[in-house]
Write a structure and sequence with these properties.
alpha/beta; seven-stranded mixed sheet; four-stranded antiparallel sheet; 12 helices; 16% strand; globular
Length: 350
């Protein structure tokens, strides 16, 4: 597939902004940096050696080196963004001409794909997953046309919690001439090994990942994607010059030096997920508990809105997802204490 044919013509021709830190980074104190109108005297806070008076690396070189070692991919296959949401927005802007092109969304799924399309004036084509929340290829085929430049899907899926079959993702990439965006925000919590990075031809696939979930860093807003260098180059071509700040970068680098702690957190969540599923299964008023490969659980009840409101009145906030999956609520796996409180209150309500 010729990725260039999917790219907007003006993006292809775009001459990107050249920032002062394209090549000269402030680490070398022998270099006198008088090129970026920075404050040479320092900053007004204790920056712990981060040199916050200087602009950050626009190419995130250190993060990409550490991350490439962790996930065993080449740094040129990595793009670092302000959360996965920035990468979703940039991808739409690269491949979809406003008011002309379309994006397909496999539903039910994460709502930000549609919001980002609406912001960019890109028409959304919605296709329902099948009853097992897997790709319905007949439905995709019947709705697909040449104006669809991107197909969005999430695996493990939000809000259903299940993995999309890897063979189906491969088939989707091979059969449809579009960019396939696979959001893997929750992949760390899947007990089945996910090896899309190792086995798939990433020519037209973008794998989205985040530091928000298993790493416990939602507050710093950092995500990344894995794709072919051609796509990565387009992302760097149109992003804002200094999209990732130094404070966030420092915390991501620190996280990548503490992978053992991340594994401990992940295992705690998986253990508590099992506890929640087992306890939810015992409650008579719950009609169905869906299996989960994520850090949340979808479950079906008779009166979801009432139950949601009664839990909220007790200070327990979950998500009402009955507008996406009939009768369903979604609960995030919390701490042992939080999960027990949730189950106790839910039992009283039901």
């Amino acid at each position: 597939m010729d990725i260039g044919k999917l790219v907007r013509e003006n993006i292809e021709k775009l001459k990107p902004y050249t920032s002062a830190r394209e090549s000269h980074l402030p680490q070398d104190e022998s270099i006198i940096l008088l090129d970026a109108n920075e404050n040479a005297y320092g900053s007004v806070v204790n920056d712990n050696g981060l040199m916050l008076n200087r602009y950050p690396d626009p190419y995130h070189r250190t993060i990409k080196e550490r991350l490439s070692e962790y996930i065993n991919v080449n740094p040129q296959n990595l793009f670092i963004g302000v959360g996965s949401d920035e990468i979703i927005d940039l991808t739409i802007r690269i491949f979809c001409t406003p008011g002309k092109d379309k994006a397909m969304i496999l539903e039910p799924t994460y709502g930000m794909y549609e919001v980002a399309c609406n912001i960019n004036d890109v028409e959304v084509v919605k296709v329902e997953l099948n009853k097992k929340f897997q790709i319905d290829f007949n439905a995709v085929k019947n709705s697909f046309d040449e104006k669809i430049k991107i197909i969005f899907l999430c695996s493990p899926n939000n809000p259903t919690g299940n993995l999309i079959e890897q063979s189906s993702i491969l088939r989707l990439a091979k059969e449809f001439p579009a960019i396939i965006v696979v959001d893997q925000a929750y992949y760390d919590f899947a007990e089945e090994e996910i090896d899309l990075v190792k086995t798939i031809d990433l020519k037209n696939i973008i794998l989205l990942r985040t530091f928000s979930k298993a790493w416990g860093l939602a507050g710093i807003r950092c995500g990344y994607c894995i794709a072919q260098p051609e796509i990565i180059n387009y992302l760097y071509k149109i992003k804002l010059p200094y999209n990732l700040n130094k404070l966030t970068s420092a915390k991501v680098i620190e996280a990548l030096e503490n992978i053992g702690e991340k594994e401990k957190l992940k295992n705690k969540i998986i253990s508590e997920r099992k506890y929640l599923i087992d306890e939810l299964d015992k409650i008579r008023g719950i009609k169905k508990v869906y299996p989960s490969d994520s850090n949340f659980i979808l479950f079906e009840v008779e009166e979801p809105k009432i139950i949601y409101e009664r839990l909220a009145a007790k200070g327990i906030i979950i998500r009402d997802r009955s507008n996406q999956v009939k009768g369903c609520l979604r609960v995030t796996v919390g701490t042992e204490k939080e999960n027990k409180k949730f189950i106790d209150e839910l039992k009283k309500i039901l």
